Amino acid sequence: MIVGERKPFAEITELIKDSKKVLILGCGTCVSVCMAGGMKEVSILASQLRMDSGIQDKGMEFGEDTIQRQCDREYIEPIIELAKSHDVVVSMACGAGVQLLSDMLVPTPVLPAVNTSFIGICEEEGTWLERCRGCGNCLLGETGGICPVARCAKNLFNGPCGGSVNGICEVSPNTPCAWQLVYDRLKALDKLETLEEIQPIRDWSPSSNGIPRGVFREDMAGIGKESESASE
Ligand code: SF4
Ligand code: SF4
Question: How far apart are the CA of 135 and the centre of ligand 1, in A?
């Protein structure tokens, strides 16, 4: 999932300081799971902003709503009129959600209330860890399912670097050495011979060619329109 963190309250109030009628809009998917921008966080932020407005006599009004996903047009369409009845929309989605919302709500401004952090996992309650940088050329099949792009501080593809001590990365004393993890995993899988294959110089073009990147599926193009016309 995409992991994010809510921006500091002072930053949010600064962003909306020229507005009177503000819609706080949450996203019910990734940021909801990582407790940065779902329905509950919308409610908390709206309460804080109302209190702040009351105490400082700002005379602001705050609406609240949460949609299933802000990165998907079909979920945004039903709230366009509601959003446009406000001076500004404060999005609690990741950066992708903020941008699609912004595209679809022109001329209503959309402002971010969440800092998007990374693609990661929930390790335990209250702890999320990065696991993927979307490099576009996944090599987890060669590394026993441990990602050196996201988890090795030097992004080594033929590790370890020689600096790890007792399985800990030399760059960060709180982080396991990714290549120690790769070794342990391949050993457990009885695939240690994989480490003897030297990984060639990395082709980074899938992650850098064409900014922004896209995934285009010809087999899926127009599927939505076909089913619409079939049901007419
Ligand atoms: S190798 Fe690339 S795609 Fe695979 S997990 Fe790592 S960053 Fe993500
Ligand atoms: S100690 Fe391990 S994780 Fe840290 S930089 Fe070296 S190989 Fe990468």
Answer: 5
